[in-house]
Design goal:
Helix content of chain A is 71%, strand content 0%. By secondary structure, chain A is an all-alpha fold. The longest helix of chain A has 28 residues, at 2-29. Chain A is globular. The termini of chain A are far apart. Chains A and B meet through helix 8, helix 9 and helix 10 of A and helix 8, helix 9 and helix 10 of B. Chain A binds a DNA duplex through helix 3.
DNA sequence: AGATTTAACTGAACATTGTTAACTTAATTA
DNA sequence: TAATTAAGTTAACAATGTTCAGTTAAATCT
């Protein structure tokens, strides 16, 4: 009965081919400018074939969205080697921002575009089990902040609020840049401002040396 | 020679009709789901007519984008009555977040969608004079922060970095909500978290009472 | 006032998009 | 070998933004 498995494997390979091609095109031409037909042309199949492997375009985008979260989660995990929770939190911030800056299309998919969320909501009606993969990453951040609080390294506050705030800050930085709202800064200074902004957050939030001089 | 003027007036009225209708549809159906044809149908003209008043769809969106910035700028100005620059800054934050939460489609247009930026860049090639309207609002924030710094109420840092950081933080909060990335929180708790997050920022940044207890 | 130019508007088309249904062909099973 | 299943394509659909040739209606000129 090896045939069933081979078929399954081929199916998976085709899915992967479609996904990889889609992602490559997204990187080349930008998220907005990739069509099913482009993908089909690139892999030299007819457009209709793609619909044998994915329900619709949002399904492709959603799957890439999941892959992005896998990647991000793995990156987040690399900070686990750091003992000091505050230092770990800072590293997490850096990792998050780097990921966004190096993979803006992935980031857009994951945190800005509407498509994936549509799909998630559509799915949640049927299968409640498949609870969205993003909350895992958020939980990780939340846990880290909890540790910081417990160690007295972080202002006491509602944990949800604190975690959301830190996330929002990092998201604000990268999403303003990804969606090109920083035209007031010279192109070559942007990366510097991003890094400084991260420092600024940690500085004002936790570092007494940078605190207000009275 | 009153005819030329009447014609000009009618032209402006038609533009306004199109813009208002477009905005109304955006509010009703969401930004993504409004087409030129919908707008045309609503005002009972043919689709082609719209192209007599606007170059293309991005042009409509860009014009609404400008109107949004007018509105926001006016709101910002209302904070000028506040003497204490730090308090004024806080109020500015509140105003910004309220604007976003009450006019999510406008906010999306102004700070998330790609269309308007495309238009701005396209225009900047020809006419350098029309420098983008958003920087005026940013300048306002910047100035406010500068005053805070001079009064010793704000951590000393590169002014650009500080202003960008504060903006990014507020933007992060509202854009995560507008683009529906907060599914982990119960619907009815979201507004509360938003408000708390704003407090959290100001608390950690400036308020010693909320500072780390050693 | 009548002829002519100008402005406002439309109908029909174009190319592109996502998506689907009927069909063909190749592979697997009986 | 015949029947069934899977994989893929072709051709079409409706919806989108956009354009262009034409048609009225208004304004201007003589």
């Amino acid at each position: 009965m090896g045939i069933k498995e081979r078929k399954e494997l081929e199916k998976q390979e085709m899915r992967k081919l479609i996904l990889d091609t889609a992602m490559k095109l997204f990187l080349e031409k930008g998220l907005e400018n990739v069509t099913i037909r482009h993908i089909a042309e690139k892999i030299e199949y007819s457009p209709a074939t793609i619909y044998l492997y994915f329900k619709d375009k949002d399904d492709i985008i959603y799957t890439l969205h999941r892959e992005g979260f896998e990647q991000l989660y793995k990156l987040q995990q690399t900070t686990l080697s750091i003992r000091d929770p505050l230092e770990r939190l800072r590293k997490q911030g850096e990792v998050y921002v780097s990921f966004a800056m190096e993979n803006p299309e992935y980031y857009d998919l994951m945190f800005i575009m509407r498509g994936p969320v549509r799909k998630i909501k559509e799915m949640k009606i049927k299968e409640m089990k498949e609870w969205d993969i993003g909350s895992r990453s958020f939980e990780f951040l939340r846990q880290n902040i909890k540790e910081c609080m417990e160690a007295g390294l972080f202002p006491e506050a509602d944990l949800d609020v604190a975690a959301f705030s830190v996330w929002a800050y990092a998201h604000g930085i990268v999403s303003l840049i990804i969606r090109d709202r920083c035209m007031m800064f010279p192109e070559d200074k942007i990366r510097h401002i991003v890094d400084e902004a991260l420092d600024f957050m940690f500085g004002t939030m936790f570092d007494d040396k940078v605190k207000i001089k009275l």
